[in-house]
Each structure stands twice: as C-alpha cells, then as structure tokens.
What we know:
The structure holds two protein chains of two kinds.
Chain A: E1 2-5, H1 14-24, E2 31-34, H2 47-59, E3 63-67, H3 75-85, E4 92-95, H4 98-104, E5 110-112, H5 121-130, E6 132-136, H6 143-150, E7 158-172, H7 176-180, E8 199-202, E9 208-213, E10 216-224, H8 229-234, E11 239-242, H9 249-264, H10 272-283, E12 290-291, H11 307-322
Helix pairs in contact in A: 3-4, 9-10, 10-11
Chain B: E1 8-12, H1 16-24, E2 29-32, H2 50-62, E3 66-71, H3 80-93, E4 97-100, H4 103-112, E5 118-120, H5 129-139, E6 143-145, H6 152-160, E7 165-173, E8 177-182, H7 184-189, H8 193-196, E9 205-210, E10 213-218, E11 221-226, E12 242-244, E13 247-249, E14 257-259, H9 264-270, E15 274-277, H10 284-303, H11 312-321, E16 327-328
Parallel strand pairs in B: 1-2, 1-15, 2-3, 3-4, 4-5, 5-6, 6-7, 7-15, 14-16
Antiparallel strand pairs in B: 7-14, 9-10, 10-11, 12-13
Helix pairs in contact in B: 1-2, 1-10, 3-4, 10-11
Amino acid sequence: MKLALGPLHYYWTHETVRQFYHDMADTPVDIVYLGETVCSRRHELRLADWLDIAHQLKQAGKEVILSSQVLLESESDLKTLRQIISHANDFTIEANDMGAVHLLSGKALFVAGPHLNLFNAHSLRLMASLGAKRWVTPLEMSGAQLAALQSHRPANMETEIFAWGRLPLAWSARCFTARAHNLPKDDCQFRCLDYPQGLLMNTREDKAFLVLNGIQTQSAHTHNLLPELDALHACQVDILRISPQPEHTRDIVALFRNAIDTTENPACRQQTPEAVNTLQALAAFAPQGLCNGYWYGQPGMAQQNTVQQNTVQRNAAQRNAAQGKQP
Amino acid sequence: MPPDTIPELVCPAGSLTALKTAVDHGADCVYIGFRDNTNARNFAGLNFDRAAAHEGLRYAHAAGKQVFVALNTNPPDAGWPRWQEAVDLAADLGADAVILSDPGLMQYAAQRHPHLRLHLSVQGSATNYEAINFYRQQFGVRRAVLPRVLSLAQVEHVRQHTEVDIEIFGFGSLCVMVEGRCALSSYVTGDSPNTSGVCSPARAVHWKQTPAGLESRLNEVLIDRYAAHENASYPTLCKGRFNVGEASYYAIEEPASLNTLELIPEFFRIGISAIKIEGRQRSPAYVAQVTRVWRQAIDACRANRNHYSIKPVWMDTLNSVAEGQQHTLGAYHRPWK
C-alpha cells in the first residue's frame, strides 16, 4: 500500500511551501500531489514554482501529480487549467472537475479526483474509458460501499482514499475568510495567509465545528483511517492520502508508513502496544480531535470506537485505576 | 439560439396537487421526483409514485406543458438497480426530460434511451463550459442547470461557449455552496444531497427552549440560538450563527432566499433558456403564488423588455413566502461573494 501527500489546501507563504516540500522529499511518502486547488487568487506560488518543486520531488524519487482547481468559474480559471494540462506529458494531472476530465480525456492518463462524485462502477468504468488510471473515493463513501464497488472496479484502476486530515467538505463562490473580516472577495487582502491551518468556526456553545479556508469549508476534526488498515487492505485500496498540515506532517507520514509495513508483514502482526502508541501519537496531531464516521456509514463527524481505541481507553482506565484516579 | 429567446418558467412540484397548480398558474415546465432517494428532495410524504406521475404528465401535456423528472442523486453501487429502474420508468411514462447528475447514470440513460432528453442537474456541479461540453460530448446533454455560484457575467460567458441550453435558478432557497460539492449535511447527519437526496434532514432537527434562548440543533450540533424577539429559521446548517474568533454571526450565509426578479431582462439578453423556481418541498400555495408572479414578470418583460419594472405586489408576494423573509441576488451580484 502506497502513501500519497494530497494537495495543500491552505495558503502559505512561498518560503513555507518550499520548505515544506523540501522536508517531504526524504519522507517515506510515495506520491505527492502539487498545486493550488482552492482559490485562483492565491499567488504566492505560480505554476512555474509548482513545476520547479515537482521536478525536485521527481528527482527525489516521488511520483508527482499536478492537481487542478476544484471550482472553475472564469475564463482565467480555465486558462490556468489548460496551462497545467499542457504539462501532462511530464506529470499526471489530477482532474478535480469534469471540465478537466473533458480536456484530458483521450489525450493523457489522469487521476480522477475526490470531488467528481464517482459512486458506482458505471461511473468508474466511464472514467477508465476516458483515461483515468486512478480514482480518489468520494469523502462520503462508506467502507461497506467501497468494498462492494472494489469487487468490480475496472482493471488497472488504482484506488486512493482520503485517510488523514481535515475533510474538504464544501466549496463555494463566496470566500468565508474574507467574510469573517468584512472584506469583499475581490479585495480579500489575502487573509488566508494569516491562517496556516484555516480559521476555526465554533458553535455558539464554543464547540469546534468547521474550519473556514477561503472558499473551502473543512471539518474541524481530523479524519483518520489508520485504525482501519486491515479493512482497507481487505478491499484492496492501493493508496492512502494524507492531507498536508502546517505541523507534524512528517511524523504523520512516518506513523502511517510504519503501521502499513507492520500490517503487511505477518511476522509483525499482533503488536498491539505499538498500534496503541501510534494512535495516541496521531491523536496529538489532530488540533480538534479525530473523526471517522464516514467510513462506518455514520455522520462524518462521528468517531467510532475501534479495537485499538478501546485498548487505548482500557489501558488509560487501568493506569488511572492503578493511580487511584476516577476515569 | 437567438439572444431574444423567451426563457421557460420551470416550477417545482412535490405532489400532484402542486403540479396541477403550477400548470394552472403559468408554468411552462414542472419538475418532479419519484418517491425515494433517487432525487434531491427525498422528503417524507413528498413526491410521485407511478400513478401520480402518469396523471401529472397527462394533465401537463393536455395543457401543452412539459414535465421533467429529477433523478439527481448518486447511486451507490449496491443500489444501482433502483436508479436504473427510475430512469426506465421516467422514459416509459413519457417524461419530457430527466434531470441527472451521476455520470454513470447519465451514460446508462443515453445508451438505453437514446430519445430521452437529458438535462444536467445542478447537482452535477458544472460551473464552466468545458464541464458542460463534457456532458454534451459524452451523453448528448441538451440543457445544463447552473450551480448558484456564478456571477451574471460568468453565466453569460458560459452561455456563449456552449450549444447546451442554460437553465438558471431564479427564486427560492439559496445554496451558498457549489451544489454536488457540499458534504456538510452528511458530515453532521449522515445524509446529504449527493447520497440521500436531503440536506439538513428534519429527522435530525431538535428544537429546545433554554434559559439562553430557543435552540435549534442538527444531530446535537447547535446551529443557532434565538432571543425572544428573533424569528427562528429552519436549521439548515450553513445558515446558522456561529462563533469565529470573538464574533458570533452568520459565518456562512444568512437565512435568505434567492430572488432575481430584477434580472429578468438580463436573462432575456443573455439568452437563458429556462428559469427555475426552487421548492419541491414547499406547499401548493407556495407554488401557486410564486408561479403566478414569475409568469407575470416574464410576460411583462417579453411584452416590453426596455420598460420592464418590478411591480411592488410581486416583491411583496415573493417576500412573504421567502425563507427568512429576506431576499438576495446571491452570486449573480458580485459583491455577495
């Protein structure tokens, strides 16, 4: 099972982005998705800069994919899209809109991104016939739905799933970060730069709910499928996607890689204490806690207990009991 | 298409009574859904079984009007036969068009029913002409309903770069997100327009009077809290008040309705083929009032585009049925963004 680093959803400074991908070059991530997918106003990096990073990562042995913008509204958005696609001979493109699929079909192999709403084998076969070599499952798809679909996915179609990160739940023409500052979108003053992991939106009883990231709305909780590795293996998922975050991405990649290697090597199975440690370490990297509901066909914000988590809780309870604390 | 095309008025019907009401009050077309999760208004007690759809089509056709069937959710693999049967039923009943969003289902409809007219649903998220032309090339789609995220200039640009007829939303509840690319409802409740044909479903709504005020919750998540003097709105989750930093406000969107009466002359000029009224979940009384106003407004513009003006009674009527009793031009008006 391979690890992919999904496209960067946030707006960081040029230097920060450069440093981030420089740091990723020697992590055990196999695939890196690059490019601006959220907002056409973000210009810290131009396409030439992304291509420069792409070449560096390619030299470092990574498979590099150029991701395209999800919401295409203007001719200028389409122009950017065409410029990205003009590099399809050097790099595979992730199509995040049917407009991109239209421009790529029959011309180059592509990745069908997570926002194309490919929910059934008919849609997958159509994408395969147009040149998709890989698809990223819709966020809303449950593990049971995925298992049913995987049994008759097209040949040579790789399956990738969003496995770690705040869920990119919604896209709008309106910029909610600009709105939070009472600024019009056209004069947003690039306030997204002030929020390297988005702007937290709480309910009126101050419970973390969503994250405003320009025109994108994310979950406040971090989606985590690491505890589902066995099930992901069983339904032949090929690639796990980790979504970049400003801190700890390197550690998260390492934890996932280690967990995958452990799962894939039967001799290393049954190492429950290590799995428990991994989960505890991961939980520390989620600013507002974890969720995994979509995988279980539940509300996405739900956190279903898993075997390992139960173990974590049991161990904690035992520790507390030993120390004479109430749970 | 010549630029002086008169836009068709496309009205919603969640019941046979609403369909007949729409036809009687001046709709050119009525759109309906079947009684299950194959459409994006899958609400209890709403929609059409085979007999009602048959009678609705008979009624509309007798009046020279059309009926479109919305089949605009994404079939999961295991549920595929239900959606396939729904397409077959719509074709069998003689629907004038089916409104689809799922690419696989669209391919099935195009191959199995080559004479069935295909419309791309707003749930198909086609916001640019390359996407619309994709559906045209692959499936012969004849009309695309644009998501409520484009400015008027962007709508015009799309219209100029495709042969596909363009239908836009003119009135009704306003989605602030790109339709088809919003999973907020499933994140909170497990059901969304894509997967279940519902947004912020009533089954997950809970109202409670508390010392702090009247609270509306969606699956336990506090969507809003109202002081005694405030009007409470249905807790559509993107239209509640939330805390961002120190401020508590409508962080995503106010509970307002889209109302574009003033843009009708622009719709004529641009060459919009159809204007859609949202609200299959609303009552026949809503359908009657909104359809009547929009019929009069379109006819007034048709009679004299240069001297079109909005009658106060039209605005009063529409405001009286609008969500939150406020209205907005939404994304058509650039500063909204």
